Amino acid sequence: MLTFVPNKKCSALLFMAQKNASCSYIPNDTQRTDVPFIFGDQLSHTFASKEEVIAVDHVDFGISEGKITAIIGESGSGKSTLLKLIYGLLEPTTGEVRYQGWLVPTRKDKLIPGHDAMRLVSQGFDDLNLYAKVWDNIASQLPNTNLARKERKTQETLARLKIEHLAQQRVADLSGGEKQRVAIARALINEPEVLLMDEPFNQVDAAFRDALQQDIRHIVAETGITILLVSHDPTEVLAMADELIVMKNAKIIEQGSPEALYFNPSHSYTAQLLAKSNILTPDLAAELGIACHTSVGIHQEDIAYHIHPDGQFVVKDIRFRGFFNELVVRRGPLKLHAILHPIIDIPIGTRVDVTIKRHIVFENK
Ligand code: ADP
Ligand code: MG
């Protein structure tokens, strides 16, 4: 049985007893061995500003070790608040969050807020010193007690993030993508067990996003680090996340692999977020011959159509989306968005017939 060690990273005894350097910060806390790596149980946070805001509302979740988990949801759904609760920057109003079975300490338990085994890369490069060189921004995270180690670790971390060539540049002169690499390097140099990132690709140009995402995936594979990131644009994280947590109005509404949630979401909100799916009421679904009591989702790629002079649908709009066009077709109150690929010249007003290749029946309305 492990005992309480006040505000210390770990005693030698504890360190031998456990694989990782995490331990109890809270008096009388006992380690739960029956819960996931990071575990939330009925976790809530209410901001007591002029009006009370329930930012996170009784959420339960489990996050696996050595994986990339993305928290997705529209703006204001509570993603950043959940990330801060996991890190220990905010106090739970109800429930608890555990890391390796131990309660996560908050400001009242610990002088410097934030779990010692975790690092947070916040939104907007708040932590970077814009007027210092890249090297100094990263090296400054290590003590001067062993200068040779400091030099070696900084070099290694620059190499890991592929920014060695930027070492002597001022952060202020870098692009958004380069700044984000510096921020991640700065967070990684102390070898945290968990890296938390809030909207990490917001300021990274689309052209550089993919390379950064794949580099992060390599870091996970090489080091076994656990990554938790927040995004309001799920299409940018579908390719990199192993697991998704979907938030809506302060609640977690579902959790699963990107593939499971893309193809078989339980909620129309998830289908819209991940696939910009067509959402139909039972009445409108019935017009397509789909009988059910709850709403129905039809992904844009699951609508087939062919041009026919007596077609029942009319092309109302064509939207340029790059390598494909989005076709908006209509029959009375029934409006569907479909993918036009390869792009062919279809005039607005053209009549088409529509076939639904696949649809999703949601659990709720
Ligand atoms: P997201 O990151 O998903 O956009 P947040 O977690 O930032 O959402 O916010 C969730 C809700 O909590 C929002 O309604 C937001 O306005 C509110 N909120 C966030 N931070 C504060 C704060 N410091 N004080 C009061 N309300 C806040
Ligand atoms: Mg946010």
UniProtKB/TrEMBL annotation:
The keyword ATP-binding applies. The keyword Lipoprotein does not apply. It holds the Pfam family ABC_tran. PROSITE patterns: ABC_TRANSPORTER_1, ABC_TRANSPORTER_2. Signal peptide: none annotated. Residues 30-274 form the ABC transporter domain. One of its GO terms (molecular function) is ATP binding. Keywords: ATP-binding, Nucleotide-binding, Transport. This is ABC transporter ATP-binding protein. It comes from Sphingobacterium griseoflavum. The lineage of its organism: Bacteria, Pseudomonadati, Bacteroidota, Sphingobacteriia, Sphingobacteriales.
